[in-house]
Amino acid sequence: MQWEVVIGLETHTQLKTNTKIFSGASTTYGAAPNTQACEVSIALPGVLPVLNKQAVECAIKFGLAIDAEIAQRSVFSRKNYFYPDLPKGYQISQFELPVVGKGKITIQVPAGKSTEAYEKVIHITRAHLEEDAGKSVHDAVDGMSGIDLNRAGTPLLEIVTEPDMRSAAEAVAYAKKLHELVQWIGICDGNMQEGSFRCDVNVSVRPKGTEKLGTRREIKNLNSFKFMQQAIEYETQWQIETLEDGGTIQQATVLFNPDTGETRAMRSKEEANDYRYFPDPDLLPLAVTEEDKSRVRAEMPELPQALQARFVGEYQLSAYDASTLTASKAVADYFVETVQAGADAKQSANWVMGAVSAKLNAEEKTIADSPVTATQLAALLKRIGDNTISNNAAKQVFEGMWAGEGTVDAIIEAKGLKQVSDTGAIEAIIKEVLTANQAMVDEYKSGKEKAFNALVGQCMKASKGKANPAQVNELLKNMLG
Protein backbone atom coordinates (compact mmCIF):
# COMPACT_ATOMS: atom_id res chain seq x y z
CA MET A 1 0.00 0.00 0.00
CA GLN A 2 1.16 3.52 -0.76
CA TRP A 3 0.86 6.06 2.04
CA GLU A 4 0.51 9.83 2.07
CA VAL A 5 1.68 12.01 4.95
CA VAL A 6 -0.49 14.98 5.96
CA ILE A 7 1.14 17.80 7.91
CA GLY A 8 -0.07 20.99 9.57
CA LEU A 9 1.95 23.44 11.68
CA GLU A 10 1.21 25.54 14.73
CA THR A 11 3.94 28.13 15.25
CA HIS A 12 4.41 30.11 18.46
CA THR A 13 5.96 33.41 17.41
CA GLN A 14 7.22 35.57 20.26
CA LEU A 15 6.32 39.16 19.48
CA LYS A 16 8.93 41.90 19.56
CA THR A 17 7.49 44.04 22.34
CA ASN A 18 9.27 45.68 25.25
CA THR A 19 6.73 44.49 27.78
CA LYS A 20 4.45 41.52 28.32
CA ILE A 21 1.06 41.15 26.69
CA PHE A 22 -1.01 41.95 29.78
CA SER A 23 1.44 43.80 32.04
CA GLY A 24 4.36 46.23 32.04
CA ALA A 25 6.98 43.60 32.99
CA SER A 26 10.04 43.38 30.74
CA THR A 27 10.42 40.70 28.05
CA THR A 28 14.24 40.97 27.87
CA TYR A 29 15.81 37.54 27.41
CA GLY A 30 18.39 36.11 29.81
CA ALA A 31 17.45 37.82 33.09
CA ALA A 32 17.98 35.99 36.38
CA PRO A 33 15.09 33.58 37.16
CA ASN A 34 11.85 35.20 38.30
CA THR A 35 13.19 38.76 38.17
CA GLN A 36 10.68 39.63 35.45
CA ALA A 37 7.71 37.93 37.08
CA CYS A 38 5.40 40.77 38.09
CA GLU A 39 2.12 40.64 40.04
CA VAL A 40 0.19 39.76 36.87
CA SER A 41 2.74 37.08 35.87
CA ILE A 42 2.42 35.28 39.19
CA ALA A 43 -1.37 35.79 39.38
CA LEU A 44 -1.63 37.62 42.70
CA PRO A 45 -5.26 37.97 43.81
CA GLY A 46 -6.99 41.10 42.55
CA VAL A 47 -4.62 41.99 39.70
CA LEU A 48 -6.13 42.75 36.30
CA PRO A 49 -4.67 42.29 32.81
CA VAL A 50 -4.22 45.28 30.47
CA LEU A 51 -3.74 44.50 26.77
CA ASN A 52 -0.47 45.58 25.13
CA LYS A 53 -1.29 47.76 22.07
CA GLN A 54 2.08 46.94 20.47
CA ALA A 55 1.26 43.21 20.47
CA VAL A 56 -2.03 43.93 18.69
CA GLU A 57 -0.21 45.98 16.04
CA CYS A 58 2.18 43.05 15.48
CA ALA A 59 -0.79 40.75 14.86
CA ILE A 60 -2.30 43.25 12.40
CA LYS A 61 1.04 43.45 10.54
CA PHE A 62 1.10 39.70 10.14
CA GLY A 63 -2.49 39.62 8.92
CA LEU A 64 -1.74 42.27 6.30
CA ALA A 65 1.45 40.48 5.21
CA ILE A 66 -0.42 37.24 4.41
CA ASP A 67 -3.48 38.97 2.92
CA ALA A 68 -5.63 37.59 5.72
CA GLU A 69 -8.97 38.49 7.20
CA ILE A 70 -8.44 40.74 10.23
CA ALA A 71 -11.34 40.58 12.65
CA GLN A 72 -13.06 43.84 13.56
CA ARG A 73 -13.93 42.15 16.84
CA SER A 74 -11.97 39.37 18.52
CA VAL A 75 -12.26 37.89 22.00
CA PHE A 76 -9.78 36.67 24.62
CA SER A 77 -10.61 33.43 26.39
CA ARG A 78 -9.33 31.47 29.32
CA LYS A 79 -7.77 28.13 28.38
CA ASN A 80 -7.90 26.10 31.57
CA TYR A 81 -5.27 23.52 32.46
CA PHE A 82 -3.06 22.78 35.43
CA TYR A 83 0.69 22.88 35.03
CA PRO A 84 3.31 24.08 37.54
CA ASP A 85 4.56 26.94 35.32
CA LEU A 86 1.05 28.38 34.87
CA PRO A 87 0.27 30.14 38.17
CA LYS A 88 -3.26 31.26 37.25
CA GLY A 89 -4.34 27.75 36.32
CA TYR A 90 -5.35 29.09 32.91
CA GLN A 91 -3.74 30.73 29.89
CA ILE A 92 -5.24 33.83 28.29
CA SER A 93 -5.60 33.04 24.60
CA GLN A 94 -8.09 33.46 21.76
CA PHE A 95 -10.37 30.62 20.72
CA GLU A 96 -13.54 31.10 18.67
CA LEU A 97 -12.81 34.67 17.54
CA PRO A 98 -9.09 35.15 16.72
CA VAL A 99 -7.67 38.50 15.59
CA VAL A 100 -6.33 37.08 12.29
CA GLY A 101 -8.40 34.74 10.14
CA LYS A 102 -7.78 32.95 6.86
CA GLY A 103 -4.72 33.90 4.81
CA LYS A 104 -2.01 32.27 2.73
CA ILE A 105 1.74 32.01 2.24
CA THR A 106 3.37 30.89 -1.01
CA ILE A 107 6.45 28.72 -0.57
CA GLN A 108 9.15 27.46 -2.91
CA VAL A 109 9.99 23.83 -2.19
CA PRO A 110 13.60 23.03 -3.14
CA ALA A 111 14.37 20.21 -5.53
CA GLY A 112 15.22 16.82 -4.08
CA LYS A 113 17.36 14.13 -5.66
CA SER A 114 14.52 12.89 -7.88
CA THR A 115 12.19 15.89 -7.96
CA GLU A 116 12.10 19.39 -9.39
CA ALA A 117 11.62 22.54 -7.34
CA TYR A 118 8.03 23.75 -7.23
CA GLU A 119 5.78 26.42 -5.76
CA LYS A 120 2.90 25.74 -3.38
CA VAL A 121 0.34 27.81 -1.49
CA ILE A 122 -0.04 27.03 2.23
CA HIS A 123 -3.31 28.22 3.72
CA ILE A 124 -3.31 29.84 7.14
CA THR A 125 -6.36 28.95 9.22
CA ARG A 126 -5.86 31.58 11.91
CA ALA A 127 -3.36 33.51 13.99
CA HIS A 128 -4.31 34.39 17.54
CA LEU A 129 -2.76 36.35 20.38
CA GLU A 130 -1.95 34.64 23.65
CA GLU A 131 0.41 34.72 26.61
CA ASP A 132 3.32 32.34 27.09
CA ALA A 133 3.68 30.16 30.18
CA GLY A 134 6.67 29.99 32.49
CA LYS A 135 9.37 27.35 32.34
CA SER A 136 10.13 24.32 34.47
CA VAL A 137 13.84 24.10 35.30
CA HIS A 138 15.07 20.63 36.21
CA ASP A 139 18.14 19.84 38.33
CA ALA A 140 19.00 23.51 38.96
CA VAL A 141 19.16 22.25 42.51
CA ASP A 142 20.34 18.66 42.84
CA GLY A 143 17.39 16.30 42.59
CA MET A 144 14.82 19.10 42.44
CA SER A 145 12.90 21.11 39.87
CA GLY A 146 12.21 24.83 39.93
CA ILE A 147 9.91 27.26 38.15
CA ASP A 148 11.14 30.33 36.27
CA LEU A 149 8.23 32.67 35.51
CA ASN A 150 10.19 35.23 33.47
CA ARG A 151 8.50 34.02 30.26
CA ALA A 152 5.02 33.97 31.82
CA GLY A 153 2.94 36.58 30.04
CA THR A 154 5.33 37.04 27.12
CA PRO A 155 3.23 37.91 24.03
CA LEU A 156 2.83 35.21 21.40
CA LEU A 157 1.11 35.04 18.04
CA GLU A 158 0.16 31.42 17.40
CA ILE A 159 -0.04 30.84 13.63
CA VAL A 160 -2.00 27.75 12.54
CA THR A 161 -2.01 26.25 9.04
CA GLU A 162 -4.42 23.99 7.24
CA PRO A 163 -3.10 20.40 6.85
CA ASP A 164 -1.72 21.34 3.42
CA MET A 165 1.79 19.89 3.53
CA ARG A 166 2.63 16.48 2.13
CA SER A 167 6.29 16.04 2.99
CA ALA A 168 8.93 17.06 5.49
CA ALA A 169 10.48 19.20 2.74
CA GLU A 170 7.26 21.20 2.35
CA ALA A 171 6.91 21.66 6.11
CA VAL A 172 10.48 22.91 6.44
CA ALA A 173 10.07 25.21 3.42
CA TYR A 174 6.94 26.70 5.01
CA ALA A 175 8.60 27.09 8.44
CA LYS A 176 11.60 28.84 6.84
CA LYS A 177 9.36 31.15 4.82
CA LEU A 178 7.33 32.05 7.90
CA HIS A 179 10.54 32.55 9.90
CA GLU A 180 11.81 34.99 7.25
CA LEU A 181 8.47 36.80 7.02
CA VAL A 182 7.97 37.54 10.73
CA GLN A 183 11.50 38.93 10.91
CA TRP A 184 11.00 40.90 7.67
CA ILE A 185 7.95 42.74 9.01
CA GLY A 186 9.65 43.26 12.37
CA ILE A 187 7.28 41.39 14.69
CA CYS A 188 9.71 38.69 15.89
CA ASP A 189 13.50 38.41 16.25
CA GLY A 190 13.35 34.81 14.99
CA ASN A 191 15.84 33.52 17.56
CA MET A 192 15.00 29.83 17.69
CA GLN A 193 17.62 29.01 20.33
CA GLU A 194 15.99 31.47 22.73
CA GLY A 195 12.52 30.09 22.00
CA SER A 196 11.26 33.08 20.00
CA PHE A 197 10.07 30.84 17.15
CA ARG A 198 8.79 27.38 18.11
CA CYS A 199 6.90 24.95 15.91
CA ASP A 200 4.45 22.20 16.82
CA VAL A 201 3.97 19.80 13.91
CA ASN A 202 0.82 17.71 13.47
CA VAL A 203 1.56 14.52 11.50
CA SER A 204 -0.79 11.85 10.24
CA VAL A 205 -0.72 9.31 7.42
CA ARG A 206 -3.45 7.88 5.19
CA PRO A 207 -3.65 5.53 2.21
CA LYS A 208 -2.77 7.45 -0.94
CA GLY A 209 -5.84 8.57 -2.86
CA THR A 210 -8.17 8.70 0.16
CA GLU A 211 -9.70 11.89 1.57
CA LYS A 212 -10.26 10.94 5.21
CA LEU A 213 -7.51 12.19 7.51
CA GLY A 214 -5.63 9.75 9.68
CA THR A 215 -5.14 10.12 13.44
CA ARG A 216 -2.61 12.84 14.11
CA ARG A 217 0.20 13.05 16.59
CA GLU A 218 1.60 16.46 17.55
CA ILE A 219 5.39 16.88 17.78
CA LYS A 220 5.95 19.70 20.27
CA ASN A 221 8.41 22.57 20.48
CA LEU A 222 10.71 22.01 17.52
CA ASN A 223 13.21 24.88 17.50
CA SER A 224 15.43 23.82 14.59
CA PHE A 225 14.65 23.24 10.91
CA LYS A 226 17.03 20.29 10.90
CA PHE A 227 15.23 18.71 13.85
CA MET A 228 11.87 19.38 12.20
CA GLN A 229 12.95 17.46 9.09
CA GLN A 230 14.26 14.55 11.16
CA ALA A 231 11.24 14.44 13.47
CA ILE A 232 8.69 14.41 10.64
CA GLU A 233 10.55 11.74 8.69
CA TYR A 234 10.87 9.49 11.76
CA GLU A 235 7.26 10.03 12.87
CA THR A 236 5.94 9.37 9.37
CA GLN A 237 7.84 6.10 9.09
CA TRP A 238 6.81 5.06 12.61
CA GLN A 239 3.11 5.63 11.87
CA ILE A 240 3.28 3.73 8.56
CA GLU A 241 5.07 0.77 10.15
CA THR A 242 2.60 0.72 13.07
CA LEU A 243 -0.39 0.62 10.72
CA GLU A 244 1.16 -1.98 8.41
CA ASP A 245 1.85 -4.18 11.43
CA GLY A 246 -1.85 -4.08 12.32
CA GLY A 247 -1.58 -1.47 15.07
CA THR A 248 -3.55 1.73 15.56
CA ILE A 249 -2.42 5.32 16.03
CA GLN A 250 -3.51 6.99 19.25
CA GLN A 251 -3.83 10.78 19.21
CA ALA A 252 -0.97 12.05 21.34
CA THR A 253 1.51 14.80 22.05
CA VAL A 254 5.03 13.59 21.33
CA LEU A 255 8.55 14.89 21.86
CA PHE A 256 11.52 14.59 19.52
CA ASN A 257 14.87 13.46 20.91
CA PRO A 258 17.64 14.89 18.69
CA ASP A 259 20.20 12.54 20.25
CA THR A 260 18.36 9.42 19.09
CA GLY A 261 16.46 10.94 16.16
CA GLU A 262 13.24 9.43 17.52
CA THR A 263 9.87 10.69 18.72
CA ARG A 264 8.19 9.40 21.87
CA ALA A 265 4.70 9.90 23.27
CA MET A 266 4.50 12.34 26.18
CA ARG A 267 0.75 12.37 26.90
CA SER A 268 -2.58 11.80 25.21
CA LYS A 269 -3.59 14.76 23.07
CA GLU A 270 -6.20 17.09 24.56
CA GLU A 271 -9.26 18.24 22.64
CA ALA A 272 -10.57 21.81 22.77
CA ASN A 273 -13.35 20.83 25.19
CA ASP A 274 -10.72 19.53 27.65
CA TYR A 275 -9.56 23.10 28.17
CA ARG A 276 -13.02 24.46 29.08
CA TYR A 277 -12.56 27.67 27.12
CA PHE A 278 -14.72 30.63 28.12
CA PRO A 279 -14.40 34.40 27.43
CA ASP A 280 -12.11 36.17 29.89
CA PRO A 281 -14.31 38.42 32.04
CA ASP A 282 -11.40 40.77 32.78
CA LEU A 283 -10.74 41.69 29.13
CA LEU A 284 -13.03 43.57 26.78
CA PRO A 285 -13.35 42.32 23.20
CA LEU A 286 -10.53 43.59 20.98
CA ALA A 287 -11.77 46.06 18.32
CA VAL A 288 -9.65 46.69 15.19
CA THR A 289 -10.81 49.52 12.93
CA GLU A 290 -10.01 50.26 9.29
CA GLU A 291 -8.05 53.27 10.55
CA ASP A 292 -5.94 50.93 12.72
CA LYS A 293 -5.17 48.76 9.70
CA SER A 294 -4.32 51.73 7.50
CA ARG A 295 -1.96 53.17 10.12
CA VAL A 296 -0.16 49.86 10.60
CA ARG A 297 0.03 49.26 6.83
CA ALA A 298 1.72 52.65 6.37
CA GLU A 299 4.44 51.65 8.84
CA MET A 300 5.21 48.29 7.21
CA PRO A 301 8.25 47.68 4.99
CA GLU A 302 7.89 46.65 1.36
CA LEU A 303 7.01 42.95 1.39
CA PRO A 304 9.29 40.33 -0.23
CA GLN A 305 7.01 39.58 -3.19
CA ALA A 306 6.66 43.27 -4.10
CA LEU A 307 10.40 43.80 -3.67
CA GLN A 308 11.14 40.83 -5.95
CA ALA A 309 8.98 42.36 -8.67
CA ARG A 310 10.75 45.71 -8.25
CA PHE A 311 14.19 44.08 -8.49
CA VAL A 312 13.16 42.41 -11.74
CA GLY A 313 11.59 45.56 -13.19
CA GLU A 314 13.92 48.26 -11.91
CA TYR A 315 17.25 46.43 -11.89
CA GLN A 316 16.57 43.88 -14.67
CA LEU A 317 17.54 40.98 -12.40
CA SER A 318 16.37 37.44 -13.10
CA ALA A 319 13.47 36.08 -11.06
CA TYR A 320 15.91 33.65 -9.40
CA ASP A 321 18.32 36.42 -8.37
CA ALA A 322 15.45 38.57 -7.07
CA SER A 323 14.07 35.67 -5.05
CA THR A 324 17.48 34.84 -3.57
CA LEU A 325 18.21 38.45 -2.59
CA THR A 326 14.83 38.85 -0.88
CA ALA A 327 15.13 35.71 1.23
CA SER A 328 16.24 38.04 4.02
CA LYS A 329 15.40 41.70 4.52
CA ALA A 330 18.94 42.39 5.76
CA VAL A 331 20.40 40.90 2.55
CA ALA A 332 17.93 42.82 0.38
CA ASP A 333 18.80 46.06 2.18
CA TYR A 334 22.54 45.36 1.74
CA PHE A 335 22.05 44.81 -2.01
CA VAL A 336 19.99 47.99 -2.43
CA GLU A 337 22.55 50.02 -0.49
CA THR A 338 25.33 48.66 -2.71
CA VAL A 339 23.48 49.72 -5.87
CA GLN A 340 22.56 53.10 -4.42
CA ALA A 341 26.26 53.67 -3.70
CA GLY A 342 26.89 53.52 -7.45
CA ALA A 343 27.58 49.86 -8.25
CA ASP A 344 26.07 47.99 -11.20
CA ALA A 345 22.94 46.07 -10.13
CA LYS A 346 23.70 42.74 -11.79
CA GLN A 347 27.32 42.81 -10.64
CA SER A 348 26.18 43.71 -7.11
CA ALA A 349 23.73 40.79 -7.10
CA ASN A 350 26.46 38.38 -8.23
CA TRP A 351 28.86 39.51 -5.50
CA VAL A 352 26.25 39.56 -2.71
CA MET A 353 25.03 36.06 -3.63
CA GLY A 354 28.57 34.86 -4.36
CA ALA A 355 31.67 36.11 -2.54
CA VAL A 356 29.86 37.87 0.32
CA SER A 357 27.49 34.97 1.07
CA ALA A 358 30.30 32.41 0.80
CA LYS A 359 32.42 34.24 3.39
CA LEU A 360 29.46 34.72 5.72
CA ASN A 361 28.49 31.05 5.50
CA ALA A 362 32.07 29.90 6.06
CA GLU A 363 32.34 32.02 9.21
CA GLU A 364 28.73 31.43 10.32
CA LYS A 365 27.94 35.15 10.29
CA THR A 366 24.90 37.12 9.21
CA ILE A 367 25.00 39.99 6.71
CA ALA A 368 24.76 42.40 9.65
CA ASP A 369 28.15 41.12 10.82
CA SER A 370 29.87 41.48 7.43
CA PRO A 371 33.26 43.24 7.79
CA VAL A 372 32.73 44.60 4.26
CA THR A 373 29.92 47.16 4.24
CA ALA A 374 27.65 47.72 1.26
CA THR A 375 29.39 51.05 0.57
CA GLN A 376 32.80 49.36 0.60
CA LEU A 377 31.59 46.63 -1.75
CA ALA A 378 30.28 49.30 -4.12
CA ALA A 379 33.69 51.00 -4.09
CA LEU A 380 35.31 47.69 -5.06
CA LEU A 381 32.84 47.05 -7.89
CA LYS A 382 33.40 50.54 -9.25
CA ARG A 383 37.12 49.79 -9.50
CA ILE A 384 36.28 46.75 -11.64
CA GLY A 385 33.95 48.87 -13.74
CA ASP A 386 36.53 51.57 -14.47
CA ASN A 387 39.17 48.93 -15.34
CA THR A 388 41.42 49.82 -12.41
CA ILE A 389 41.52 46.13 -11.45
CA SER A 390 40.55 42.84 -13.04
CA ASN A 391 37.95 40.42 -11.65
CA ASN A 392 40.71 38.16 -10.35
CA ALA A 393 42.48 41.06 -8.65
CA ALA A 394 39.14 42.13 -7.15
CA LYS A 395 38.91 38.81 -5.33
CA GLN A 396 42.26 39.54 -3.67
CA VAL A 397 41.13 43.05 -2.73
CA PHE A 398 37.89 41.65 -1.27
CA GLU A 399 39.85 39.21 0.90
CA GLY A 400 41.99 42.10 2.11
CA MET A 401 38.95 44.21 2.91
CA TRP A 402 37.37 41.29 4.77
CA ALA A 403 40.55 40.94 6.84
CA GLY A 404 40.50 44.66 7.68
CA GLU A 405 43.59 45.60 5.68
CA GLY A 406 42.20 48.97 4.58
CA THR A 407 40.20 50.67 1.86
CA VAL A 408 39.84 49.41 -1.71
CA ASP A 409 42.37 51.86 -3.15
CA ALA A 410 44.84 51.32 -0.30
CA ILE A 411 44.81 47.54 -0.82
CA ILE A 412 45.14 47.89 -4.61
CA GLU A 413 48.18 50.11 -4.09
CA ALA A 414 49.74 47.98 -1.36
CA LYS A 415 49.38 44.74 -3.34
CA GLY A 416 50.28 46.28 -6.70
CA LEU A 417 47.06 45.09 -8.30
CA LYS A 418 46.36 48.05 -10.57
CA GLN A 419 45.48 46.83 -14.02
CA VAL A 420 47.67 47.77 -16.99
CA SER A 421 45.49 49.42 -19.64
CA ASP A 422 48.19 51.26 -21.53
CA THR A 423 48.01 50.07 -25.15
CA GLY A 424 51.71 50.53 -25.81
CA ALA A 425 52.75 48.55 -22.74
CA ILE A 426 50.38 45.69 -23.58
CA GLU A 427 51.55 45.60 -27.21
CA ALA A 428 55.15 45.29 -26.02
CA ILE A 429 54.23 42.31 -23.83
CA ILE A 430 52.34 40.65 -26.71
CA LYS A 431 55.30 41.07 -29.08
CA GLU A 432 57.60 39.34 -26.59
CA VAL A 433 55.10 36.48 -26.16
CA LEU A 434 54.68 36.01 -29.91
CA THR A 435 58.42 35.93 -30.44
CA ALA A 436 58.91 33.35 -27.69
CA ASN A 437 55.99 31.13 -28.78
CA GLN A 438 56.28 30.80 -32.56
CA ALA A 439 54.90 27.25 -32.46
CA MET A 440 51.63 28.46 -30.88
CA VAL A 441 51.42 31.24 -33.46
CA ASP A 442 51.79 28.69 -36.28
CA GLU A 443 49.10 26.47 -34.72
CA TYR A 444 46.67 29.39 -34.49
CA LYS A 445 47.30 30.38 -38.09
CA SER A 446 46.66 26.81 -39.17
CA GLY A 447 43.16 27.03 -37.65
CA LYS A 448 43.61 25.78 -34.09
CA GLU A 449 41.56 28.23 -31.98
CA LYS A 450 42.80 26.74 -28.69
CA ALA A 451 46.24 28.12 -29.48
CA PHE A 452 44.81 31.65 -29.23
CA ASN A 453 43.65 31.05 -25.65
CA ALA A 454 47.06 29.65 -24.81
CA LEU A 455 48.69 32.82 -26.15
CA VAL A 456 46.32 34.98 -24.10
CA GLY A 457 47.33 32.98 -21.04
CA GLN A 458 51.01 33.57 -21.79
CA CYS A 459 50.38 37.31 -22.17
CA MET A 460 48.56 37.48 -18.84
CA LYS A 461 51.34 35.50 -17.21
CA ALA A 462 53.98 37.83 -18.65
CA SER A 463 52.07 40.82 -17.28
CA LYS A 464 51.76 39.11 -13.88
CA GLY A 465 48.01 39.21 -14.28
CA LYS A 466 47.89 43.00 -14.50
CA ALA A 467 47.09 43.45 -18.19
CA ASN A 468 43.50 44.29 -19.08
CA PRO A 469 42.17 40.95 -20.43
CA ALA A 470 39.79 42.58 -22.92
CA GLN A 471 42.61 44.70 -24.36
CA VAL A 472 44.92 41.69 -24.53
CA ASN A 473 42.32 39.78 -26.55
CA GLU A 474 41.67 42.64 -28.94
CA LEU A 475 45.33 43.61 -29.50
CA LEU A 476 46.47 40.00 -29.85
CA LYS A 477 43.88 39.33 -32.58
CA ASN A 478 45.00 42.46 -34.44
CA MET A 479 48.68 41.54 -34.19
CA LEU A 480 48.09 37.97 -35.37
CA GLY A 481 46.33 39.35 -38.42
TrEMBL record:
PROSITE patterns: GATB. It catalyses: L-aspartyl-tRNA(Asn) + L-glutamine + ATP + H2O = L-asparaginyl-tRNA(Asn) + L-glutamate + ADP + phosphate + 2 H(+); L-glutamyl-tRNA(Gln) + L-glutamine + ATP + H2O = L-glutaminyl-tRNA(Gln) + L-glutamate + ADP + phosphate + H(+). The keyword ATP-binding applies. Keywords: ATP-binding, Ligase, Nucleotide-binding, Protein biosynthesis. It is an enzyme of class 6 (ligase). The keyword Membrane does not apply. It comes from the Bacteria. Residues 333-480 form the Asn/Gln amidotransferase domain. Its EC number is 6.3.5.-. Heterotrimer of A, B and C subunits. Allows the formation of correctly charged Asn-tRNA(Asn) or Gln-tRNA(Gln) through the transamidation of misacylated Asp-tRNA(Asn) or Glu-tRNA(Gln) in organisms which lack either or both of asparaginyl-tRNA or glutaminyl-tRNA synthetases. The reaction takes place in the presence of glutamine and ATP through an activated phospho-Asp-tRNA(Asn) or phospho-Glu-tRNA(Gln). Belongs to the GatB/GatE family. GatB subfamily. This is Aspartyl/glutamyl-tRNA(Asn/Gln) amidotransferase subunit B. It comes from Methylophilus aquaticus. The lineage of its organism: Bacteria, Pseudomonadati, Pseudomonadota, Betaproteobacteria, Nitrosomonadales.
